[in-house]
Each structure stands twice: as C-alpha cells, then as structure tokens.
Amino acid sequence: MRTIEAPRECDDCRPDTPDDANRKKAEAIAERPAAPHRTALCRPLAETLRPAGGLPNVAAVSNPRYTLRSAAFVTVYLAAFLIAPIIPASPLAPLVAGGVWLTAQAGYGLRRLDVILLATATAVGATVQGAGLLMSITVAVWAVLPSVLFAVLLERLLPGYWRGHGDRFRRPAVAVATLAGIALLTAGAAAMIGAVIDTGSWLAVPFARDAIMLFLAPLAVNTVHRLRSPRRAGLTVVR
C-alpha cells in the first residue's frame, strides 16, 4: 500500500507570522546605513583642535584659577628678584620663589608655560635693574635651571609630598633626609651657576639661605596639608 505524503508548505506562500515580521524588520534595519553619531562627527574636530605635542592645552590655560595663581606668582617672584640685591639675606629669595612656583603649579600640567613665564619675569627684572639683553638671558638661565631641578627632583623622589599625599607609605626620617638632599643639591646648582656668571660674588650666604628655605617651604606646606586632611585609622588585618 502506497503512502501519500502531504504537500510541503512553501515558505514564500506561507502567511507571515508575527515572528517573521519582526525578523524582516530587524534585517531591514540592519541593512540600512547607520546615521553618523554626534560623537563621530565631533571626534575629528576634537582631534584637529587638540594642541600639538608640547603646546599647552587651551582649556587649561584659560582656567581662571590658573591665571590668577600665575599672576600672583609672577608678582611675588618679581618682588623677590628686585629685593634680593637690596637685602641679600632676605628669606624670599628668587630661587625659593621660582622653585615653589613650579612645584605648586605642577598640578595643572603646564610646566613649559610656567618655565616660560619664570624666564620672562627674570629677564624683565634683570632689565629693570639695568642689565643688557645678553645678561638678562644669562640671569634667566640662572633662575630657571635650579628651579626646574628642584621641582623635578621633588616630584620624582617625593611624589605627592607637596600636597601631603603618600606620607602613610614613607618613613618620616627618610622623607626629611630626601628633602634636605634635594634642597642642598638645588642650592649648590644655583651657587655653581652664579659663580660662573659672577666670579667675584660671595655665595656662602645665598647658598645657606636657599638651602634652608627650599627645605622649609615644602615641609611647611606638607604639614599644613596633613593637618587639614582627616585622620585615617591604621590598617588592620582581618582573619
């Protein structure tokens, strides 16, 4: 006896079910060209407006807080530079003001701009005191190099020390000894450059003054930040 099979239903002739309709809509949406997203349009513009390597960020430079702080540091530094020849033992030395300037402004990431401002302020101060163009540039080099050295060494050897961070992971005696070494090295570099510029100058007093003030300034700022920060309980081991 021969069995007669039922005719197979054609997929094209079969009426669409709700699932088939949804699948066709999904395929149509997937094949449709996607509209450009707003982020995709803005990314090339952002890449174009982004400063090239070495140039300061326009948004950071236009920060009012950074602008006011920079103006204050320029004023204080010029005052220290102009007072230094009159009062050699003044604690507000140009090297101290420059080192504190570059260290305090490190959080904005605009050190190159700060160095340019420091060199310009030094050259202006030297010009006001009667120095020529070449001498003003030389004095600017004398002021910038030790200040940059101080800021870089403090940032590398004692990261976060200026803001009172990382003290829980440092031994106080080691941190103080490292800070003293940084201050002595910076003051020694400034004294060596000053001896090359002016061979007849007496550098014992400026060396001692710069070393002491470069040591005390970060120590005082670190102490203030630690006193203002909330006390944290010691680490405990949970077994």
TrEMBL record:
TM annotation in the entry: 76-103, 140-162, 174-197, 203-224
Region Disordered: start-end pairs: 1-22
Keyword Membrane recorded: yes
Keyword annotations from UniProtKB, A to Z: Membrane, Transmembrane, Transmembrane helix
Protein name: Energy-coupling factor transport system substrate-specific component
Source organism (scientific name): Actinoplanes philippinensis
